[in-house]
Protein 1
Amino acid sequence: MSVFKKTRALLATCVLALSLALVACGGGTAPAGGGTATDGASDGAAFTTIEAGKILVGSDCDYPPFIYIENGQAAGFEYELAQAIGADLGYTVEYLPLQNFDTIIASVAAGSKMDIGFSSFTITDERKELVDFSIPYFDSNQACVVMKGSGYTSTTDLAGLTVGAQSGTTGESWANENIPGVTVKGYNQTSEALAALAAGDVEAIFFDEPVATEQVSTAYTDCEVIAVIPTGEQYGIAISKDNPGLTAAINASLQRLVDNGTYAQLFSKYFDFEPTIS
């Protein structure tokens, strides 16, 4: 039984997501404000945005239940949280066309294409050298997924074999650093890694536990999680180091959404355990 309350036809969703690579992920709330704004509720921190009245978001839109494409539009926990932040700050939140996950941090750092990266980014020291992060909004671990009946029962069984992960992720890093003699194939999307596992191109794949649990209980029921790796990761929103006012405004907004119950309401819509962020 999935730990998530919402189930959906994820295989069709992933196919649709890939077919929409040149289409914007979604829209947002009614705009207000301009390209430069002062958010009085966040200690008067001035911040700029690339387009007046908008916060432009980069995401791969392929990580259910956090972010995915449904009926041609972005959906999921992160999407709804982004919209809530935008409404709180008085800004439209607009998702850009689908991005490759491993290019988003660099794009945020450049500051010319997107204002924030909101795509289940684990906060790491390496990434913090390039961008700033919001306060954490989700706690996670890694998971190892294999085909049922494969005979693999732990990550130690994978030494010297070929496994998969989404390029640029902490799952890819963990496999490279912890499995002796492993070959790690990188994929643009987690759905591509899952398809490679089903096709027998790799023996296992590594990605975040909440998404792994969702996928094996819905779209990929012939797969199973054989290990949950307690990496103790936290997700944050990536923001340019040149825009500290936006970081301050988003942090203040996130805290208000926690304090007024909006965060917990959105969390309970997608997960059936208690939020760890308060």
Protein 2
Amino acid sequence: MAKIVLGVGTAHTPLLSLDGEEWQSRANDDYRAKALNMSDGRWLSYDELEAEVAGRYADIATPAIFKEKSDRSQQALDRIADDIEAAAPDVILIVGDDQEELYSKGNMPAVALYYGDEIVTHEHDILSMESPPEWAAKVTQGWAVDAIHRFPGHREFALDLIRGLLDEQVDISVCGEVPRPEEAGFGHAYGFVIKRLMRTSIPVIPILLNTYYPPNVLTPARCVAVGRALRKAVEASPRDLRVAVVASGGLSHFVVDEDLDQKVLAAMRASRPEDLSTIPREALNAGSSEILNWILTAGAIEHLSCKWAEYVPVQRTPAGTGVGMGFAVWE
């Protein structure tokens, strides 16, 4: 039977495709923000947030700190790539979120699985702007969304998983092709993992979790249950495959909440996904919603042990906007 032999968690923020010296360019966007998600459910403008925290993070929102944190992050990514290479999986399941890249508000499933022969990315809309930001070229290349790219899927195993999930009472949505990649295709949650962390060509099966767009966002408890069902579906397949599961995205952003991130990582390190079931839904809005990708993955890999984990909180402005970057491997 197929078996999950490796679990991975990784951020996919634009910062990971930029040098530390370039992080300030992303910080400049934060100063103009009108709706920053707080973990208590509030939405604040940057000015409102700055008034609340009174420049608490000014001492660490500096080029020297950015460089140090960039180096740590790239070392963590290299270590993940090493572990994937050593585990030699036959197929990788990437649990990511779609941000109106393949899907749209006209068709947004709560959770879907792709069973096509090819994973086809879509050129990011930012490149069609009259004056794209300076960071856009590097970031879209790092995400493999600078143009249309094609990567191998695993149709037969994906169909096994669909049948297995249905048997486990998960009403999974599906898609089997990307018919017009010039209009819509897979986005950064998948392209970053493939381009940055996979040193050889490995078939990929995308699992698309709607985290960003209410009203059909799964609860943390349901994500745990679907993750556990996914593991059962993997093990129900008669194929002799070594499977890796990768959580792509997170952790807290666009305001860093270190307490929330450490709670997530503590439960993940201990292989206790049930501890994640009670995270309030209001804490998982906007970028922080990608924590749900980690929670679903936690349900699928709870039989594995955490080999290592790294946390790099990046407060890139005095108000603490930025991203909590998590990196981890389970074997």
